[in-house]
Specification:
With about 650 residues, the chain is an alpha+beta fold. The protein is about 25% helix and about 30% strand. The strands form nine sheets. Strands 19, 20, 21, 22, 23, 24, 25, 26 and 27 form a nine-stranded antiparallel sheet that branches. The two termini are about 40 Å apart.
Length: about 650
């Protein structure tokens, strides 16, 4: 069934709810021939007010949910068998050879493979649903951490039998209950440690590294058999498992990152009204998401994540915005906002800012705020266009470039100029200026793998910056020693009291130094240019010189090696009161060498500033307009946009 057909039931229910106050009657009417099964559930609980309310909650919110039956799901078993055979052949290692094998397998097998799904209203069996409700109540009361939670939270996060569409309505939760009943019975334990111990036992279920990424799983047992899947797969698997044990659980997701391509889904457990997000797959630091998804901090392994919005998948309806507007054409609503089973939980993760823009009120009833990713602009929030053209977008993440757009027949078109919502929540216009500049680049994306991030830090961890007014550093102060808590694309060291020195020295703990740039600032904007530089390290490359560390360009860099411990000393010419030091670790150039690379700038559309062919080092594009955002628009790769100010690249 097509997406449009699937949402046919949602549209019907919306129209019915508009006319009838009783959503239960509407759901029963939509159930058709299966109405008797749902009424049997209600009759079963007629003398138990609380369980009857729970049954009503499930049935009233059932329209729009759908699943695959077990017979249809079994059609995938031969594919799973072949997938497992490849995994055994490669000893369950996720090697490049294994990825190619399973990708080719799924490419062949999916052709002509059709797995139908049907609405839950038409398929739910009364006996099955009664067992699900009874077990949910039993597990809830056995769980020492959630049994004091409200009935409302129970209905939202423990009771639902479905946490993802198309998953089979089978006995998965009963299986999980039998395996791990009473795991959460001891209130003296830390529930997070208990969840970790549970999921460590399932650590053989691993991310597939995007191999055969579109291959679906409709049953928990199928996922356990194949042992490799996506974050979405593991997230709904965790929900079935934890809810079966009386733990409130949900799936949160970012529809599109603000500084990298794609999005992500993860789990959160809810205890006493507080959400505790965690990585769905087994990980050494699983409970980090409120720390690294706050739009202020960053992850040591994966770098910085900027989140424009966070939504939570729900079982219950959330009818709002354009989807709830009967006068808004469905083709003018992006798919994200045609889903009634999500709610905005951004405020649980970061300090959010309401954004106001002005658009043409004659064009559309709704506008959408978009971020750049996967080579296009992706909508992440909606806003209602007021008669005066003002649109308010609620709860946006900061330090992200946004573009307000309309949706016309499924296509996103400009509605207002792009802008940066900076770290202070201020809107900064993105607009080309008449003045031009040269732009020097050596990478097309912000994204680095963990091993690449580790390499950027390798020679700097443990290095110390010292200040002195004595050229021999006989009397010197250690200002800071660098740890591995640094970012690959730029760092600032700020001093509460300005440091008044003429000489600065970087002592490295080993015999090597890799550094792109270091700058000393007496004022907030412009750095002091050192007049002299001295080092005992020798260049590792003929085309890199130590002067590249202080040339004012964050894309250029230098690598040196000494006989013993290395150092670099900078003479500022006179004593300066330094407020901050900025530095960029060294990163290897990140460009394809087999094609002409265009630099594009944003001017109500992407315009080309020139093309160059890369061989090594950096590329410099002259006469590029200032004040806007830029990208190296390379076909077939997920490039990122960036701003460029005073020689420094800031990725978005």
């Amino acid at each position: 069934m097509s997406i449009c057909r699937a949402y046919y039931y949602i549209c019907i229910l919306f129209l019915c709810v508009s006319c009838q106050p009783d959503r239960l009657d509407t759901a029963l009417e939509l159930a058709g021939e299966n109405r008797a099964e749902l009424e049997k559930v209600l009759a079963h609980y007629k003398n138990d007010k609380t369980k009857c309310q729970a049954a009503r909650f499930l049935i009233e919110n059932m329209p729009g949910h759908r699943g695959v039956d077990t017979v249809a799901a079994a059609r995938l078993q031969p594919v799973y068998d072949k997938h497992v055979a490849f995994s055994e052949q490669y000893h369950w290692e996720r090697s490049e050879e294994w990825k190619h094998a399973v990708n080719d397998l799924w490419k062949r097998e999916q052709t002509g493979l059709y797995i139908p799904s049907r609405p839950d209203l038409e398929t739910v069996n009364a006996d099955w649903l009664i067992r699900e409700i009874d077990r949910a109540f039993q597990a809830w009361q056995e769980n020492a951490f959630t049994r004091g939670d409200s009935f409302e939270d129970f209905c939202h996060y423990i009771l639902p039998y479905r946490y993802a569409e198309k998953i089979c309505l089978d006995e998965a939760r009963e299986t999980f209950y039998q395996r791990h009943a009473h795991l959460f019975a001891d209130p003296a334990r830390d529930f997070r440690q208990l969840i970790d111990s549970l999921h460590e036992a399932y650590s053989y279920l691993m991310h597939a590294d995007w191999a055969a990424s579109s291959m679906p799983f409709y049953q928990a047992k199928a996922f356990e058999y194949v042992k490799r899947g996506s974050c979405d797969d593991k997230a709904w698997y965790n929900c079935l498992q934890l809810s079966a044990l009386g733990m409130g659980v949900a799936i949160d997701f970012v529809p599109a990152w603000g500084n990298r391509s794609g999005g992500h889904s993860w789990n959160c457990v809810l205890v006493n009204g507080e959400a505790y997000p965690f990585e769905p797959f087994w990980d050494a630091d699983r409970w980090k998401y409120k720390r690294i998804y706050n739009n202020e901090d960053f992850d040591l392994l994966w770098g910085r994540f900027q989140l424009p919005k966070v939504y939570r998948h729900t079982y219950e309806w959330h009818l709002e915005g354009p989807m709830a507007d009967a006068d808004e054409a469905r083709e003018n609503i992006p798919p994200l906002f045609l889903n009634p089973f999500i709610k905005d939980v951004s405020h649980e993760y970061f300090q959010a800012t309401d954004v106001e823009v002005k658009v043409d009120p004659e064009k559309h009833r709704y506008a959408y705020l978009c971020v750049f990713g996967s080579r296009q602009w992706n909508p992440v929030q909606w806003g209602r266009v007021q008669p005066d053209g003002k649109v308010t977008f609620k709860g946006m993440g900061r330090d992200i470039v946004y573009w307000p757009m309309f949706c016309e027949g499924g296509e996103m078109v400009p509605a207002a100029p792009a802008f940066l919502l900076d770290r202070d929540g201020k809107q900064v216009e993105i607009a080309c200026q008449d003045e031009t500049q040269s732009i020097t680049v050596s990478a097309y994306t912000y994204y680095l793998y963990p091993e690449e991030i580790a390499e950027t830090k390798r020679t700097l961890v443990g290095a110390c910056i010292r200040g002195s007014n004595d050229p021999d550093f006989a009397h010197a102060d250690t200002l800071v020693c660098l740890t591995d808590s640094m970012e690959s694309w730029g760092n600032e060291i700020r001093f509460d009291v300005p440091q008044t020195y003429r000489y600065f020295r970087l002592d490295v703990p080993k015999d090597s130094l890799n550094l792109c740039e270091i700058s000393f600032f007496e004022t907030e904007e412009m750095p002091v240019q050192p007049i002299k530089q001295e080092t005992n390290l020798e260049s590792l490359s003929d085309d890199e010189t130590p002067e590249r560390m202080i040339d004012g360009l964050s894309a250029t860099g230098w690598r040196g090696k000494a006989q013993g411990k290395g150092f670099v000393c900078w003479d500022l010419g006179k004593v300066h009161a330094i407020q901050k030091i900025r530095y960029v670790p060294y990163y290897s150039p990140y460009l394809p060498a087999d094609r002409d690379i265009p630099l594009c700038y944003w001017d109500n559309g992407w315009k080309e500033a020139g093309r160059q062919r890369w061989e090594k080092g950096t590329l410099t594009f002259p006469n590029v307009p200032k004040g806007t955002v830029y990208r190296l628009r390379i076909q077939g790769v997920d490039d990122r946009i960036f701003r460029y100010e005073n020689g420094w690249i800031k990725w978005y």
